[in-house]
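Next comes this protein.

***
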Amino acid sequence: MAPVRKPLPADHSILNEMLAIRLQQLELENGGMEAFQPKTGIARGTYYTIVRGLGNPTFKTMERIASSLNMSVLELLGFEVDDARRALKKSGVDYDDLSAAINKKNQADRRVARQARSRKVGG
């Protein structure tokens, strides 16, 4: 595997570094940045900032990237889903139930946004 380039030095958080490194790994696995970046569902400038570890993406942005890549935020950050299942189970939460509820809410949010856009365009 080719070496992953290091983010530029700046005031980084561990989460920002993890996301930058993971995106760089995914780039390598998916034919480079030019092939991979459009798959992330975010603007090119935003992507460049995040992949260099300079951005401070919101959780919503991380969810958008993960969803566009057909993975969970945990998978995007390199965590195994089984680890999340065990951690949630200790708190009495079922991972599959939580995941299904989140997906249902996201679908409803997207429907509402589409309806609002269609009213704006047609109105």
